[in-house]
Task: inverse folding
């Protein structure tokens, strides 16, 4: 079959989550976390990344396990940092050396995690390259994460997180520097993250989400390598236009 293990896992993730909740002793924490991010204005100047604060508004079903509460906080920090890089990659001021550095030390050392990062970075660069030509990169963006569920593995060394990312963005085409009332685009995507504890730190293994950019490849049933090659080819063609 041409579908890779990674993308088959995407299609079947809903079934897997339901099954794991019913059949294992995993700790499932149902929660609704409204994670508000301060509006960002992208700049053509070099950005200096600083640690982002913890969410200020949290509504969580209480847990009596202090260890689990500590894990939840650590996981939320990692996911916040991941989205910070994700949005900057699509803005007018992407992270420095994003192609080489990717998501940095947020990603697991597992082979499947490294493969995920390679594909995701290539996809974001392709997306940003196209958007640059049509003036759609983000100038302003404001997004919120609503974490619906954190499922911890039996040994508290793995985690699956279901969340909704909602955003208001202002693209180059929409931005009006003379007005505070630029037109906005509203985005909303569900994400399912898999994380793994490595040397005392939580690392991302996979981020599964659907947008039109991924669907153009998924619908063709390409393997991971075929998708990567296609993205690199498409990006090269855009850069040479």
Result:
């Amino acid at each position: 079959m041409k579908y890779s293990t990674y993308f088959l896992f995407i299609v079947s993730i809903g079934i897997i989550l339901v099954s794991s909740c019913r059949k294992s002793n995993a700790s499932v924490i149902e929660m609704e976390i409204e994670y508000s991010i301060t509006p960002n204005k992208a700049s053509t100047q070099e950005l200096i990344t600083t640690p982002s604060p913890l969410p200020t508004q949290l509504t969580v079903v209480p847990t009596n396990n202090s260890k689990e509460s500590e894990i939840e906080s650590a996981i939320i920090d990692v996911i916040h940092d991941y989205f910070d890089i994700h949005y900057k990659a699509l803005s007018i001021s992407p992270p420095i050396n994003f192609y080489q550095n990717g998501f940095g030390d947020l990603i697991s050392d597992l082979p499947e995690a490294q493969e995920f990062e390679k594909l995701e970075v290539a996809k974001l660069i392709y997306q940003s390259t196209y958007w640059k030509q049509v003036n759609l990169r983000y100038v302003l963006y404001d997004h919120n994460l609503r974490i619906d569920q954190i499922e911890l593995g039996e040994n508290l060394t793995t985690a699956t997180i279901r969340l909704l990312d909602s955003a208001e963005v202002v693209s180059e085409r929409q931005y009006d520097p003379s007005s505070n009332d630029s037109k906005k685009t509203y985005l909303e995507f569900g994400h399912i993250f898999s994380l793994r504890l490595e040397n005392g730190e939580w690392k991302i293994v996979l981020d599964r989400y659907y947008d039109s950019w991924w669907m153009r490849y998924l619908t063709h049933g390409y393997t991971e390598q075929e998708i990567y090659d296609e993205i690199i080819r498409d990006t090269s063609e855009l850069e040479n236009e």
